[in-house]
Amino acid sequence: MNIKGVMRLVSVGVIALLLSGCWNSRELNDLAIVSGIGIDLVPETNEFKVTFQLVNPSSTASSFSASTGQPSIVVVSSTDKTLFGALRRASKRVTRQLFFAHTQLVIVGESLARSGINDVFDIFERSHELRLNSAVLVAYHSDAASVLKILTSIESLPSLGMVKKTQNTSRVWGENRTVSVFDIINGITGEGDLTINGVSVQGDPSEGMKKSNMEQTVSQAGTAMHGLGAFREGKLVYWMEDSEARGTQWLLNRIEETILNIDSEDKKESVAVNIVYSRTKVKIDIQDGLPVFHVYISEEGIVNETDGFADLSKREEIVKLEQELQKQTGKEVKQALQMAQQMESDIFNFGNALKRSDPQGWASLDKNWGHIFAQGKLDLHVEAYIRSTGMSLKPYHPAPE
What we know:
By secondary structure, this protein is an alpha/beta fold. The chain has helices spanning 3-19, 83-89, 110-115, 122-126, 144-148, 158-172, 181-189, 205-208, 243-251, 315-343, 350-357, 359-363, 369-374; strands at 31-42, 47-55, 73-80, 97-99, 105-108, 135-139, 194-203, 221-232, 235-240, 258-262, 271-287, 290-306, 377-388. The radius of gyration is 26 Å and the shape is globular.
């Protein structure tokens, strides 16, 4: 065999060696699957306290194993000057290597959120272990560790349950939306500010960690979605709740479905309209050195309930309801914008929109955009359409005398 033949055999052998097997494989029983991560700030030491919600392999798929009585999760925490250091330091308390491929949720404690999150998510972009599509929540008036310790009855993994709550309420109520690590990194590196969903602990947190919390028809503690945390320059400055939160979602074009209670002829907020379609378009231009926000909202709804006199067989009654829809939508949008302008925080990405449409105009404003944004004017146009009135046209109540 000549030298070329020998080299070919050596090359084939090396390639086969590299392709055979998984050189970095890990056995499942050597891994601790992380379903949720909580990040808090320790004020005394200025360190990060990182909490990991781990899937308990000794438990069954139900909330508690019938044979062992153990919870489906185990929660451990560690502290360090860096997040990665805390991640590795947790090995002192866990018998298995932390595995993040199934991490559903990241929770940031309110104290850390108010001190600033601009540097918190750097590790998620650099490390191959962590996920960019994990959902992110901010603990409302609480720390992240306390939220992760609350056991839930319907979902065996509390982290997954909170993600599903976010998805569910954003789909049908409209005050929240799913925000991922990737979304936050884009918001931090963009030209404006951002909002992140809040989550609160309902009831006594110490009771929520106990098995007895799962053995009652009404739990002693649980978690619930709580508005939007508004950030300015990476720091939490205000909680947008109720109509302000929904107005924010309208301006961000993130309303999938929601309910508006509007006035009938004889009673306040007596007609429930289910908004099933909503689209928002935003255009921004500069007039006399200040931005003008041209907002166009188109929405469609279905009348699902009336608690007053509303003869929906008449077109003029439908027109009145459509006008009330426009009025209510406009009111919530204005509330959200006014609050954001008071904070000088562009949480609606108007700066990015202006930069795309008018780069030269943006260049003259970007250094002081927060202050200029606060002086901007709103040009709002809302078009509402009642698509359906349900199975009934005539009201149960007689016409007011």
